[in-house]
Description:
The chain is α+β, with helices and mostly antiparallel strands. 30% of the residues lie in helices and 26% in strands. The chain has 4 helices and 9 strands, in the order αββββαβββββαα. The protein has helices at 2-12, 67-79, 129-149, 153-156, and strands at residues 32-36, 41-44, 49-53, 58-62, 88-89, 98-100, 106-113, 116-123, 126-128. The strands form 2 sheets. The protein has a 7-stranded mixed sheet, covered by helices on one side. Strands 6-9 form a two-stranded antiparallel ribbon. α2 runs antiparallel to α3.
Amino acid sequence: MTILLFMMLSLFGFDCQNTPLIFEEEIPSDFSFAINSGGNDAYNSQFKSFYRKYLNEEKTVKVELTLEEKKIIFEFIKKVDFFNMPIVFEPTGRSRTIKVTMPSFQNTISVTMNGKKKFVSYENGFTDDLNEKRVKPFLDLNKMIWDILYKKQEIINLPESDYNYQ
């Protein structure tokens, strides 16, 4: 019996390399997100819709993300532990300095996956040092998503918004 097993392994070969097994988590079928810049632009991945405000109108274009782009966003959402972020990033009151910015914008991201939905927002008009440290992963996610979206030809072809904040 041992000889038969040895012969089979010799015939068909076996690989004893120490290659790590890498399992890439699949994107859940219900994965979607919506992002709003707090200014002129918003995107909803469920409807594949990008919205831009203008003084007298709002334009909507269809923008579809590739599977690779969705994977990048999905992995980053997991990396920053989005579902454990607070709903609103606010000053803690423990910092010595409060920062006020005008005009201010409320950046928002909403994510749906695995039957759960989470909404997170950050108002940059009233913050402090500690809040800015806590909000960094959210702002990194926000920037990463916009960097992907602003490279899409459909958005590049849209005129810049004439809506001005002062």
